Amino acid sequence: MNNYFKEIFKGVWEKNPTFVLGIGMCATLAVSVSISNALWMGVATTFVLIGSNILVSAIRNITPSHIRIPIFIIIIAAFTTIVDLALIAGNIYSINCC
Amino acid sequence: MNTFQMIKAILVLTIIGFIAAFSLSFMNKLTSEPIAKQNQEKKLLSLSLVLPSYTIQKENTVTIDGEPFTYWEASKEENKVVKKAWAFIAEEKGYGGPVQSIVGIDDTGKILGFTILSQSETPGLGARCTEIASNKTFFDHLFKNNGSDTEQIPWFQVQFIGLDINKPINILKKGDWNSTIQNILLQQNAVTAITGATITTKAVTLSIEKGAQKLKKALTLHEVKQ
To answer: Residue B148 CB: number of other CB atoms within 10 A?
Structure first.
């Protein structure tokens, strides 16, 4: 009996693709209402993910495990801010007034 | 945890933080000039949008209630009568930060134009205050086909044109704006709220009302000086 509950729990929480995708993609989904938004959101997401993952895996061995999370936060936030500034400067997502 | 581990943790965190701060400040230096230029261009474009056919005479910044308040004086000649108009920057806290906009009004207190300068509302909800309805598809975009799009101003901003700032601006909930409900809204001096983002709509109307009061104060101050 216990085993069945385990399976149900797995399907709903642990290995639920809709749930995982829904959380991961909600920001992208909300922004991608037009072609240029969607395109640049995709480019920005790709850049941030690739850049931060390369850096995080490169410094993995010199990072003490108990401060891993603050370091990851700093790196990812830095990448996000860089992309943010670059997009504003390129007038790609500024606030479209007209 | 021994002393060595603690020192190592502090050292690593410091170095990473330093590198991050350095790259961010470098990026900031690189982009601050184009960003400032674009803000300026956007402001000029917005001014011509909210005061159509008027020429800007001068820009004034005064301090009202301890806060800086920027407004512009504009005029145009119509049938040999000089008509005056003003534009001002209105700002109010929305759901995700300040919503800044430029409002243009004529000498009777009617809104000539309204456009949002900056906002940081939720994408898909409050950020729809700058959304332009589009029928463009991916292929239209690829082949540079403009499709059937005619609207260039977001519907949320169109509905403010013609409202009276001497009366309170009401908020109705009638769904998305379209030209069929325009008359009803104008009669009641109201706008229709963005679905799911009434706070954003409220912030915008409140900022216009407050800005109009500030403009009146600024103008009386100006007259006293003269």
So the answer is: 9
For residue B163, count other CB atoms closer than 10 A to its CB. 24
Q: Dihedrals φ, ψ of B51, to 5°?
A: -125, 70
Confidence at residue A57, expressed as pLDDT on a 0 to 100 scale: 92
CA–CA separation, A65 vs A86, rounded Å? 32
pLDDT band at B95 (very low <50, low <70, confident <90, very high): confident
Q: Which residues in chain B are closer than 8 Å to A22, comparing Cβ atoms? A: none
ipTM of the complex: 0.71
CA A89 to chain B, closest CA, distance in angstroms equals 5
CA dihedral A68, A71, A76, A82 (to 10 degrees): -170
Asked whether the beta carbons of A33 and A93 are under 8 A apart, the reply is: no
User: Given an 8 Å threshold on Cβ–Cβ distance, is B8 in contact with A96?
Assistant: no
Question: Is B138 in contact with A35 (CB distance < 8 Å)?
Answer: yes
In which element (H, E) is residue B208 found?
A: helix B198-225
Residue B147 confidence (pLDDT): 58
- Burial class from Cβ neighbours inside 10 Å (0-12, 13-18, 19+) for residue B192 reads buried
Distance from CA of B158 to the nearest CA of A (A): 11
Label residue A1 exposed, middle or buried (CB < 10 Å: 0-12, 13-18, 19+).
exposed
Question: What phi and psi, each to the nearest 5 degrees, are found at residue B111?
Answer: -80, 125
Q: Which residues pair with B89 in a beta bridge?
A: B102
Average pLDDT, chain B: 83
